[in-house]
Write a structure and sequence with these properties.
76% helix, mainly alpha, 10 helices, single chain, 2 domains
Length: 286
């Protein structure tokens, strides 16, 4: 969240006028995310596949490179195929189609922007592959709920913690509003929020809470890293928002940057600990 600059004149009620659509959009997005999570199945797969395709479109639109629409089309096809294979518990095939798609898009983007264009396919496709793989595994509802709690808790408390405590800036060149105090409050509260969500679902086995809390803390840090990464990308290409699809929030990348980093990290940990199919068990059972 960013407010008006200190030197700008603010009309009475303008802050509230901006806050209303922002709050409404946030409530709607949270309700959709939680509703599809609870329902699971094909609805969940479609929801996140579409979200990932939109992220891919926003990425390719941000990158200043040739053949924009062919790149968008190739990205969408690769991400949709990755979601299809993730739904069928084939993460290896998901990664293969993403790598192939990245190669095509990199070639289309030309020499100067080749890496940026190709990585956009991996970035968007990894979101779909990770979150679908987590949700469809045993204990998947609880694992994704844990991720929501961590990312949302970290974002909200980092904002209020930074505003309340102030202090040195975290990385002023990339994100002038973020502070170290907000970062520390956010990651601490976010990791605790994830633990509370699992306690509420009675989803912790024995002493697993210690491992889950430690993993949650690292996941919260990476979610903030994902936010900073997207901010640095937008600054590199000279844009404020990834798109204007969400009133008061910008684009899907602006809302999902931290979640993408957190979900991919959780899926990798789950896969390393328990194999590529039952990812959630590797995240929650310690």
């Amino acid at each position: 969240m960013t407010g008006p600059s200190s030197g700008a004149a603010v009309r009475p009620g303008s802050a509230m006028a901006d806050l209303a659509p922002r709050l409404l959009s946030g409530v709607v997005m949270a309700a959709l995310a939680l509703g599809t999570l609870w329902r699971g199945g094909e609805l969940f797969v479609w929801f996140w596949a579409i979200a990932a395709i939109i992220v891919g479109w926003e990425w390719q639109s941000l990158v200043d490179a040739p053949a924009r629409w062919p790149r968008v089309l190739a990205t969408g096809i690769a991400v949709a195929a990755a979601a299809f294979f993730a739904r069928r518990f084939s993460p290896d095939l998901s990664m293969l189609v993403l790598l192939a798609g990245a190669g095509v898009v990199a070639w289309l983007g030309g020499e100067k922007r080749r890496l940026w264009c190709g990585f956009g396919v991996i970035y968007a496709g990894a979101l779909a592959t990770a979150v679908i793989g987590l949700r469809l595994s045993l204990d998947g509802l609880e694992a994704v709920l844990w991720l929501f709690a961590i990312v949302w808790g970290t974002d909200i408390m980092a904002y209020f913690g930074g505003r309340t405590l102030g202090g040195p800036k975290l990385w002023p060149r990339v994100s002038p509003s973020k502070t170290w105090s907000g970062f520390l409050v956010g990651v601490t509260c976010g990791s605790l929020a994830g633990l509370v969500a699992l306690f509420a679902r009675d989803a912790l086995v024995g002493g697993a809470w210690m491992g889950v809390l430690a993993l949650g803390f690292v996941t919260a840090i990476l979610s903030q890293g994902g936010d900073l990464f997207e901010s640095s990308m937008k600054r590199h290409f000279g844009v404020k928002d990834s798109s204007h699809l969400i009133p008061g929030h910008g684009g899907f990348m602006d809302r999902l940057d931290g979640f993408i980093a957190a979900a991919v990290f959780a899926a990798l940990v789950g896969g390393l600990r328990n194999g590529p199919v039952e990812l959630a068990i590797g995240v929650l059972r310690w």
